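A.,

Following up on our hallway conversation. Structure tokens first:
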């Protein structure tokens, strides 16, 4: 696990970064020394998102930076705009001066930390980055915990499958547990059958690297919260082999597992009063002589049988056993995260995390929380009328209904069959930033975790 993401200590000498909204510009210009105001006007500084001007003294030393936060319309269209303005500042220490407050200030503070994220495991950049002190008025520990959890999620997704197999994913969970005094149990290979986790074993048995179930626990008081993350470290599609273009990003198919580990860090670092459990079925969906086949009928931990109509719909299979295991403890809530369906991307694109929930309080709270923390989510329905679409007749369930309609919903309905006792929420995330945006370089990205973290206190009555 990389070192925690932290603000610069306040005892460092720092240069002020004056961040202002476009609509504040004229008022600010009236308060500035005439030379600075003239310079901003001459250089065309408008306060747009990404707009930046550096001010030097007579000796050429940097003494102030002006950073644009954009117009109201720009801010509606683009999150973390401050990160775009501070990206590329000269190395050194800075502090923020702004009229922002509340959720807007928190977003700006997180932008300052996330702007410094680099995935440099394979390519040393030697890049010296600007560092910021914590803005006055923010909960420094909370922002740092969120940024560190997000960096962990990104690192795990960005790591290619040759260095991120089931074992390495388990090692990441163990390292996280050691940081926070949690405990981890890992069930591996044939032991999955002994522990009645047959679907996890079946999906992962063809790979050279044995499948695993990772089980992390932390906390002794408070409501019981169980997070379940899809940990398919690479998905070839199995015998229903994906075409090459569709396989190119399949290192990110463990994005659900990466997300719950990042979220678990946030929860533990903030010492939330919950009994946390994290379950991750970690497998590789590979092609070999003992791979499961189309037409097979598999038995699950819950006793439900599943007809396999496409081996590329394997994520819901491994999640099914993990969800059934989670449900047996009757926790106060179960939440799953998975890079599960292309249908979800067609529905809402790569930037929004669709979710399904049986808990109206959590669903309502999530929608509000998402706006507060700039982590967009959108509720999709557990539409009961589609239940017949996942019932093939020859078995209890069909893992890949024909027809192509409502793919995200039918996948969610499939998962819901394995949760009976507990309230259940499922996120179908993309886990990938397809092009660079402020504070989010191209590559792995967390989705839904910050919104859920914000919603949990109200949803679980903490």
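Then the amino acids I'd put at each of the 462 positions:
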């Amino acid at each position: 696990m990389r070192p925690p993401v932290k603000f610069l200590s306040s005892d460092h000498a720092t240069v002020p970064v004056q961040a202002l909204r476009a609509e504040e510009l004229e008022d600010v210009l009236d308060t500035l020394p005439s030379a600075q105001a003239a310079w901003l006007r001459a250089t065309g500084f408008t306060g747009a998102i990404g707009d930046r001007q550096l001010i030097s003294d007579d000796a050429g030393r940097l003494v102030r930076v002006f950073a644009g936060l954009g117009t109201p319309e720009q801010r509606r269209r683009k999150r973390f705009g401050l990160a775009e303005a501070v990206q590329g500042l000269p190395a050194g220490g800075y502090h923020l001066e702004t009229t922002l407050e509340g959720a807007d200030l928190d977003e700006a503070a997180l932008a300052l930390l996330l702007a410094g994220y680099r995935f440099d495991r394979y390519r040393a950049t030697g890049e010296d980055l600007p560092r910021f002190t914590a803005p006055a008025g923010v909960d420094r520990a909370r922002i740092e915990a969120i940024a560190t959890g997000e960096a962990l999620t990104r690192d795990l997704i960005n790591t290619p499958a040759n260095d991120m197999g089931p074992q390495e994913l388990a090692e990441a969970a163990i390292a996280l547990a050691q940081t926070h005094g949690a405990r981890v149990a890992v069930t591996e290979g044939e032991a999955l059958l002994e522990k009645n986790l047959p679907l996890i074993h079946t999906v992962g048995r063809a790979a050279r690297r044995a499948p695993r179930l990772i089980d992390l626990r932390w906390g002794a008081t408070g409501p019981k919260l169980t997070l379940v993350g899809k940990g398919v470290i690479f998905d070839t599609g199995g015998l229903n082999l994906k075409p090459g273009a569709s396989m190119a990003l399949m290192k990110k198919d463990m994005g659900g597992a990466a997300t719950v580990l990042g979220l678990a860090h946030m929860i533990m670092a903030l010492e939330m009063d919950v009994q946390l459990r994290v379950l991750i079925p970690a497998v590789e969906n590979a092609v070999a002589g003992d791979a499961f086949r189309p037409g097979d009928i598999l038995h699950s931990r819950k006793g439900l049988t599943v007809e396999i109509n496409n081996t590329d719909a394997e994520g819901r299979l491994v999640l099914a056993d993990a969800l059934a295991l989670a449900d047996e403890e009757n926790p106060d809530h179960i939440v799953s995260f998975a890079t599960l369906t292309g249908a979800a991307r067609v529905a809402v694109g790569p930037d929004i995390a669709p979710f399904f929930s049986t808990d109206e309080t959590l669903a309502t709270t999530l929608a509000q929380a998402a706006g507060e923390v700039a982590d967009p989510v959108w509720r999709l329905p557990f539409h009961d009328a589609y239940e017949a679409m996942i019932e093939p007749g020859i078995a209890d369930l069909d893992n890949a209904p024909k027809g192509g309609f409502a793919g995200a919903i039918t996948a969610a309905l499939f998962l819901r069959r394995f949760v009976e006792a507990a309230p259940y929420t499922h996120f179908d995330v993309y886990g990938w930033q397809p092009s660079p945006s402020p504070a989010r370089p191209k590559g792995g990205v967390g989705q839904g975790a910050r919104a859920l973290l914000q919603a949990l206190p109200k949803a679980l009555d903490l």
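The chain has 16 helices and 19 strands. Curious whether your intuition agrees with the design.

B.
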